[in-house]
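Before relying on records like the one below, remember that each one covers exactly one chain. Contacts with other chains, cofactors or solvent are not represented anywhere in the record.
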Amino acid sequence: MIVPTIILEMLFSFNLILYWMIFIKIKSPHAKLRRFYKKVFPILWISSLIPILIINSSLLQFIFNENISYFQEIWIWFLILGIIIIIIGIRIASMAMKRYKVKVIDVKESELIKTGIYSVIRHPVYLSWVLIFMGCSFSFDSFLAILFTPILTVLLEIHCILEEKYILIPNFGEEYLEYKKKIPFRLFSPPYNYLLIIISLIVIYIGLLNFVLGN
């Protein structure tokens, strides 16, 4: 399912590019296209991510013969690891949403959230997206989804940079700049980025070893 996966990944990336083209080019905050795409944007992202997980899963090998099992006989252990990561991602998203008190469309009328999970990381919701996707890719034994996880992380970090530059700093000004100095930007800041690298290396090693021995 390489071709459909590439198309879905391109759709995901194009959606990000189009969103920021519309946001930057259309200056009026009341523009209908801008408001409409702001609502459609996350739907398109999710609708392109979920099929990547499903269509490449070895669990559907009885339908798609070309789907391979990356973890082979030890998949059950990565299923457990995936579930743990998913739970962590959902927990982070839940903590973020509890602090998210904005009830108006105009961000200028909202207040900057700096407490709770936002006192640890500036973009917890996007971190939860990465963790949930990673956990699902392990649980589904979805080889191409596993490969897409680092790309997803980079794309979301780019999205965070643009969001800060064009939305958060212009609207919260000095308050956000001060907040920015204190709280890490990266979705995986030290020492969690080192932990992620170690997990990635282990996954790559074990996966490739089992795949080679299994074939």
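The longest helix spans residues 143-172.
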